[in-house]
Design brief:
10 strands, about 280 residues, 6-stranded antiparallel beta sheet, DNA-binding, 9 helices, Beta-Lactamase, alpha+beta, about 20% strand, Arc Repressor Mutant, subunit A, homodimer, elongated
Chain lengths: ~280, ~280
DNA sequence: TTGTTTTGTCCCGATATATGAGATAGGTGT
DNA sequence: ACACCTATCTCATATATCGGGACAAAACAA
């Protein structure tokens, strides 16, 4: 049985998370404030699965009394909820705060420092973009330190199938969606189209590796390395790319850039609440 | 200017929240643990707008040193983030926790106790439902204590336009959407249709009041009072209704039930992170 | 430039505060 | 009936928190 999903609201009602065996969680650095840190440990100990008081006490290595005091304080304020027969679980306040956080955390500002670091370390032009109306919309651009300037501006929309950034936005799509998008963008494509077959073959490799290349496809003599940015749901919500003219972008250098770009994309993802990999 | 919204991901990038004058926040009950409570106060103090150390110190009436220790502890763990020139703002960890909370909090379980209380206090049948494929899908049902049984089951799908529960699911829709849904469901409707005009007139009243009635429209001799349930975004994600045969549902009694049903719906909404009204 | 007022960060003694052992009460299952 | 599980409460101890104050750096004004 598939999950019930309200077609209009998009809210999903999942079955209660299973009560698997929870690994002993190593409490984080008690930096600064023990009590506060323990309280946060408590919240995070319940992320995977609800737990009773003594379970939490064992996991965190804290006295039951202390756990009780902290947990009830958290429950009083809605950060946890004591469910009868289930123990403590995450509370509704966290939904509210998560929503508030999403309003405050905006992608361009969060990404900026990471993009600057990437630009400094590579010397090339760096782009940030999102999917918008079946195009890659550029939200930020940093010119590299090379002589040559890459001709692109914030606010411009570029093709999805022919740019490194655009391809990264599509890495999680199904092959059916790839076909649909490719057709919409190029006007051709299909099982019999050799150009499409080659493109899909490339995309499979990119999807498996979590990065993407642009080999002078969109603009002559311009090559890019792209990587996707994910939010707290794991969904791809944006992408970055490093671009330069072909003379600075040998195959070897591009292969080496993959790790760098992926690492930056991962850091931005984590700043958006992503907790994967 | 409208906000950029990725058509595929649905993620919205809002401009940074304005730095309005923030009212002095009265710290909640320091029940149990002062340190932990203050830490949580700190988080909640930056929900509306980012704030500097001394701003927070003033607002909460806590020494700057203490605020600094707590705030850096929170920042270390991602609950807050110190943005240069902006002060402290909500951190990415809250996105992660909000997402985890959404997986744990499932509507039927959260709603159950409230529905039971409502059923006990009214004596009538109580339903919980969501929008699913242009119908109202019943997720839970409690039979009342009356002799007569309302014939409906969990898992059934009922019309949107002719039930109290269904109408409540539609309260936030635009009039254009109302027309569309009404047409799809009844096969008629339009500016010239007197039945549709009357229906829309009723819906306007319901939308303004935040409740809905079913006056023997769906099933003969059955009347209902419905109210919408909202999540942390304020969106209507479900609805409840109280149903009984007409002999127990005088106009006066229905008018009186509005407050009761709305109150229950509000309580469930708050358990889903809603912070409105 | 210089002076003024922010910002975040750090230190350290006094004491308020969190801690944890243990006891209690209410369930649940055998 | 029992044993064993919850969550909750009390209280003496000492520890971790508190807050005054000092600091460097940055932002701002003159």
């Amino acid at each position: 049985m598939d999950n019930l999903k309200s077609s209009r609201t998009g809210m999903i009602f999942l079955p209660p998370a299973g009560r698997g065996v929870a690994a002993k969680v190593e409490p984080r650095s008690a930096a600064g404030s023990q009590t506060l840190s323990r309280g946060l440990d408590l919240i995070e100990a319940v992320v995977q699965t609800p737990a009773t008081l003594s379970e939490l006490s064992k996991r965190l290595g804290i006295n039951r009394s202390t756990v009780h005091r902290l947990a009830s304080a958290l429950a009083d304020r809605g950060y946890l909820k004591l469910e009868a027969g289930e123990g403590y679980m995450l509370g509704a306040k966290l939904l509210e705060l998560g929503h508030a956080a999403r309003r405050q955390i905006n992608l361009p500002r969060v990404a900026r420092p990471h993009l600057e670091a990437l630009c400094d370390s590579t010397g090339d032009a760096v782009h940030l973009g999102v999917l918008y109306e079946d195009k890659a919309l550029y939200l930020d651009k940093l010119s590299g330190t090379r002589r040559v300037e890459i001709g692109s501006r914030v606010g411009e929309r570029h093709p999805l199938c022919a740019t490194g950034l655009g391809k990264s936005l599509l890495l999680d799509c199904s092959e059916m969606e790839w076909l649909e998008i490719y057709r919409a963008e190029t006007g051709h494509g299909g099982a019999a189209d050799p150009a499409y077959a080659a493109w899909v073959e490339q995309m499979r490799g990119y999807a498996a590796g979590g990065y993407s290349f642009d080999l002078e496809e969109n603009e002559d003599r311009v090559r890019c390395v792209g990587a996707p940015i994910r939010d707290e749901t794991g969904e791809i919500v944006a992408a970055i790319s490093v671009s330069s003219v072909a003379q600075y972008m040998s195959d070897d250098r591009m292969a080496g850039l993959v790790a760098t770009v992926s690492s930056t994309a991962g850091a931005i993802s984590r700043a958006l609440g992503w907790s994967g990999r």
